[in-house]
Amino acid sequence: MLELKTVSEARKIVGKIKPMGNETIEVADSLDRFVATDVISPEDLPPFNKAMMDGYAVRAKDTFGASEENPISLSLIGEIKIGEISKKEVEKGEAIKIDTGAIMPRGGDSVEMLEYIEVEGKRVKIRKALTPGENVAKRGEDIRKGEVLLAKGHRIRAQDIGALSGLGITEIKIFKRPKVAIIPTGDELVEPKRKPESGQIRNMNTYSLSAQIEKCGGEPIPFGIIKDDPKILREKIEKALSKADMVLISGGSSVGAYDLTLKVMNSLTQGKVLTQGVAIKPGKPTIIAKIKEKIIFGLPGNPVSVMIVFRKIVEPTILAMMNAKEKIKVVNVRLARTVTSSTGREEYIRIRLEEKEGKLIAIPLHRGSANIVSLVKADGLLRIPRLSEGIEKDQMVEVELWD
Length: 403
Hints:
The protein is of the alpha/beta class. It has helices at about 5-15, 160-165, 205-215, 230-245, 255-265, 305-320, 370-375, and strands at about 20-25, 40, 50, 55-60, 70-80, 95-100, 110-115, 115-120, 125, 135, 150, 170-175, 180-185, 190, 200, 220, 245-250, 270-275, 280, 285-290, 295-300, 330-335, 340, 345-355, 360-365, 380-385, 390, 395-400. The mean pLDDT is about 95.
């Protein structure tokens, strides 16, 4: 009989994950990698007070009371182009023309926009009162020298690369990508390029798992299909452990395939089976073991089960190896129809989001664990708690988005 663990228990029994080692790479090549140590800003950004509009640098207090009906006249004393440093100081009753991005002159604390200015020879008329700092980006306004720009475990995005470049940071220390071996098993499996014969199916799991591994920051190491033979499976696992930081075994859909994986895991030297099943639907026959401090997941064979178990249990483990946390996006929507569920297992229902009368509704899709197309059509997952019998139509539910 299966010794089922809840999803949260399954994640906990994996234990404290030792973070990967780190490496230094070019910032330009760092997209989607995970920061290995806090990145500290080496300077202020912007590095000087700069004009945010084309206009005239002035002292804000000289504009107080200015309006269309009652403009205030100031003396025009010069012009500052972008990249120039003005030697002039704005004093009482004075203004300097300035370009967007140019360094603010001493004495000037705000910029009057061109549309509120009328030039008359060496004087300008101000038609709008300003507040100190208006239309000016102050030195260090974006980030101060010594502040943390990116925290350890942060996944690098395009805007992060821009900020790093703006601060002159061209190299960054990131976690190495966890290497994850994928071993597909099953006498019935053939590769996608082959036409299946009677009783055969194409190997989907290697490819969906590889994509999921890459998406969460890992490096997939696919092994070829192996038959349901304990000796061969054991040899493949041992080889995978020598090459990878984690091993995923995608089993056939039969009870025999589950028994084979469990038997081999129990026979491995220095190995310990942590759970023989998880109270999740789909994905109940999931095995978790630890061999030589490396985690092995024995995943079901059905493609939907594999992807959902990966999402809820394997992915958080891979992220923990890079000191990163899950970032789950959810939407609150109304359920289009009643969903029933048997108690005992935490169930994940595939959901399509559809707009109706200007509002999103959640439409439950086919629940079969072999129906991969239902995941293709799905926008997210609806979690039914383990002790719940379902959710009634028209209730507001939280749908976890899956992009």
